[in-house]
Amino acid sequence: MTTLPYQDPSRPVEERVDDLLARLTLDEKAGQLTQYFYFGGFGELPEGVDVGALPPELRSFVEQPKGVEAALGHGGAGSLLFVRDPAIANRLQKLAIEGSRLGIPLIFGFDVIHGLRTILPAPIALAASWDPEVIEQGQAVAAREARAVGIHWTFAPMVDIARDPRWGRIIEGAGEDPFLGAAVCAAQVRGFQGDLGPESVLAGPKHYAGYGAAVGGRDYDDADISDSELWNVYFPPFKGGIDAGARNIMSAYMDLNGVPASGNRWLLTDVLRDELGFDGFVVSDANAVRSLETQHFARDLTDAAVRALDAGLDMEMCMSDAAYSRLPRAVADGLVDEATVDLAVRRVLRAKVELGVFEHPYVDESATAGVLARADHRDVAREAAEHTLVLLKNADAALPLDAARLGSIAVIGQLADSQRDLLGPWVFDHDATEAVSILQGIRDAATGAAVTFAPGAGIPPRLYASMFDRMDPSAVNTPGDYDDDAAIAEAVEAAAAADVAVVVIGQRQNQIGENASSAVLDLPGRQLEQLQRIVATGTPVVALVMSGRPLDLRWADAHVPAILQVWYPGTRGGEAVANALFGAVSPAGRLPFTWPRHVGHVPLYYNHYRTFQPDNQAKRYWEEPSTPLYVFGHGLSYAEFAYGNLRLDRDSIAVGETATVSVDVTNTSGRDADEVVQLYIHQRSGTSTRPVRELKGFARVVVKAGDTVTVSLPLGPGELRYWSAVTRGWLQDATTIDVFAGGSSAAGLATTLTVTA
Ligand code: BGC
């Protein structure tokens, strides 16, 4: 059999792509630009079900896999998503290769957001580690497991800046800050993509761009963002991922400033390609091309396909009946150039060639079991979780608990023994029974103490069922006939009888994530009342907060001595939490968002502008302080740190030059611990006003008891330039820059840097 040039791995990538592209028909090209969901992995229908008699929605779901398989037979799809079974992947791959004229393999995409089988802490928690190495290592584990089941590409990381915690997807990102967001995105891309070898997956930062600014925090609603905010706040995390080599970007659903992101040429081409330097391929969010019609932007599906493609959207992700299947007709009718189709196909084929799927299209089914949930993967998950815990409050060194001295511990809360909730949303291939709950973690660590458990207050279910719950038989909900009065009374009694009460409060995993925006930040149900009654017993209380967003902790902050933010800490979360509770680990995570006192304060973020009457910043509301409950970057430690000797290697630099900022951090306590050193700037005057503080550097360092560590960070054009609405471009001012260093955005140690023209 002769080897055609595109099949020859010894030839350069571009040559192979050119060769293959030249052989494709227009229909085959449209196929390569189409990605279908595949819903065939959800098991067989029960016997005797008459498909024809099912309601239309269910029937199309049941029949959907057949349509996809038919398309594969004639090169009608370039990629599939939602296939996580290696045997199914191989079967579909065979259909694609053998059924199509040129035998082009599929790439399989999936949402491997924070682990596949071994579940890492949720992404917002990973960001709270402020530790790019830990994040990279974690996502490398996720990539290895994904690849072991046949997945080539993950729809991650999500890098949308979230300034409104009502938006449920805040949990999938890195919070509110562009600098932290860019670093966390880059680390994830490095982790996922590695060397693009057999244990790597393509990464696709999403959702480009502005999705996190949905009005009212209501998922999918439109976003209105100024150009200045787009350039300075919303684009930088994408830039971080692109510079780290991300091969894919996913476009967002919503309207951005009156134009849907998925049909927005300025966004997808002018900015993404020409300014941010992206050279991979863009995929739409699920059904987002079709949605151009739904959003009353496109006239019909042909118009939607033409405008999305023209805008720079290369591949359409959809359930069935791809809008892009209309492209050949649209070319024939002169609605779009074939050259535009070719540009997109070239980008998709390049990704396939680079990933080596032509040479290795099939996954080794016999190797899968040995990779999933490997012991070393589980260790990475535990270590990552330990890095993400944020000690919000610790009055009178209430924590760590001394396990040896405690006779009894009451563990309270439904979330304490929920293996499923611990894993967070956006997991599908977990095995909840492999997860170590908080209760289990405490029991295993405090073997000398009598550990009692009371589930206590119910957590009311969602008013509208989650679409994810329907796909997840392991999802937990409080039963409808749950006797809250009795359960709370029992929990209070258990707390009263114990030496210490560890109360887990928060939201279930299906109360955060996609399609899980909240109108309020209150603890669901009667959890607050229960906490109040437990505190009233006089038993010392530790509150563990399981959430992916800030909740209203005003009462807890005023009355509970110790509060630890545990997020959704993943497969070995319970052990990590216990290690922090009993002092084997000192918490060193830091908040990646500002924690408001109350939902009425949102959006509230640290990098706001100075504006009129800055001295009254804390008094913007008449009835309570308008300051955060906990500032951005906040997080306490069991150790104590002193910052000093903040210095610059020179007091003055010219525009374009770089100064080095150094600060000494001394661990003045008797125990070793990690500390997150943060560097902020403020520009005193210039072409535009700049925020009161902006994070421009950080380092998570280990500081041994009594030691001093010096951290040095650069301040140059990369940190000092910004996009100005005055010149409508990037610039750096000659000005005075305040420089702050410390353990949070409230860092007090300051110096100044002069920048001359
Ligand atoms: C989400 C994306 C996700 C896609 C595929 C969409 O609803 O917005 O983030 O990657 O579904 O599952």
Task: State which percent range the strand residues make up.
Answer: 15-25%
Structural class: alpha/beta
Sheet of most strands: 6 strands, parallel
Side by side, the strands of the main sheet go: 5-4-3-2-1-10
Distance, first to last CA: 67 Å
Ligand names: beta-D-glucopyranose
Number of helical regions: 22
Task: Give the strand tally.
Answer: 26
Helix content range: 25-40%
Gyration radius over CA: 27 Å
**pLDDT < 50 stretches:** none
| Shape category | globular
Please tell me the overall pLDDT: 97
How would you describe what is shown here?
The protein is of the alpha/beta class and 757 residues long. Helix content is 30%, strand content 17%. It has 22 helices and 26 strands. The longest helix is centred in the middle third of the chain and has 18 residues, at 338-355. It binds beta-D-glucopyranose.
Primary descriptors:
single chain, 757 residues, alpha/beta, 6-stranded mixed beta sheet, 22 helices, 26 strands
